[in-house]
């Protein structure tokens, strides 16, 4: 499927088409991230329930500690 991730068109095959599996594909599962799908912030508890569809626009912001 073709989706746009952080402004870049990507072709990705997911075991199950959910945001949770998308995070796993990018090794981000369990990390501190904020996800926006098609302009809407996705609450953490709905990441596993939110489907990813052809043409979706996904923004993933990862928090990195440091000082």
Secondary structure layout plus pairing:
Blueprint: E1 2-5, E2 8-11, H1 19-25, E3 33-37, E4 40-42, E5 57-62
Parallel strand pairs: 1-5
Antiparallel strand pairs: 1-2, 3-4, 3-5
List the main descriptive attributes of the protein structure presented here.
67 residues; mainly beta; Ubiquitin-like (UB roll); five-stranded mixed sheet; 1 helix; 5 strands
What does the model show?
- The chain has one helix spanning 19-25, and strands at residues 2-5, 8-11, 33-37, 40-42, 57-62.
- It is mainly beta.
- It has a single domain, classed as Ubiquitin-like (UB roll) (Roll).
- A hairpin with a 2-residue loop joins strand 3 and strand 4 (40-42).
- The chain starts with a strand and ends in a 5-residue tail after the last strand.
Instruction: Give the name of the CATH superfamily.
Output: Beta-grasp domain
Low-confidence stretches: none
Percent of sequence in beta strands: 25-35%
Overall, the morphology is: globular
Architecture, CATH level 2?
A: Roll
User: What summary fits the major beta sheet?
Assistant: 5 strands, mixed
What is the tally of beta strands?
5
Helical coverage, percent range: 10-25%
